[in-house]
Amino acid sequence: MNTLLFVIIAAGAVALLIVMKNVKSKGVLNVNVEKAVQIHNENKAIILDVRTENEFAQGHLKNARNIPVQQLSEKVSELSSWKDNSMLVYCHSGARSTAACFLLKKNGFTKLNNMSGGISAWIAAGNNVEN
């Protein structure tokens, strides 16, 4: 049974590496928290939280806009004036924000940064959130 578990974990790791490579090759950068802090501090950077409204209300990055990933395709036009701005996209752990970045890239956004580890990594690194 331990061998089967190892194989499953290894397959998952390989799949994750493939996804991460594809994200970068499609013009979306996966950034760590340190780089996310730099992007967050840029005056022109757009901060997009794609978690649910309830999650957002429990704490979010300063100046973040909340558009849940489930609503992003309907509301992408609200962001269209910022297509060429640097954008930091995050969720709880990085999965929903990856999907959001693919959607944004498909809609012409050019400077997308997906925060690896999401707000969980942000908080774990000792960074502040707002309510």
Explain what you see.
The structure is a single chain. The protein is of the alpha/beta class. The protein has a single domain (28-124), classed as Rhodanese-like domain (Oxidized Rhodanese, domain 1, 3-Layer(aba) Sandwich), CATH 3.40.250. Helix content is 47%, strand content 15%. The chain has a five-stranded parallel beta sheet. Strand 2, helix 3 (53-57) and strand 3 form a beta-alpha-beta unit. The protein starts with a helix and ends in a 7-residue tail after the last helix.
Number of helices: 6
The computed structural class is alpha/beta
Distance between the termini: 45 Å
Name the strands of the widest sheet in spatial order: 1-5-4-2-3
User: Are there runs of 5+ residues with pLDDT below 50, and where?
Assistant: 11-15, 20-25
Kindly state the mean pLDDT as a whole number? 86
CATH class: Alpha Beta
CATH architectural name:
3-Layer(aba) Sandwich
Q: CATH topology, what is it called?
A: Oxidized Rhodanese, domain 1
Bin the helical content: 40-55%
**Portion in beta strands:** 15-25%
Rg, Cα atoms, Å = 15 Å
Extended strand count: 5
CATH homologous superfamily title: Rhodanese-like domain
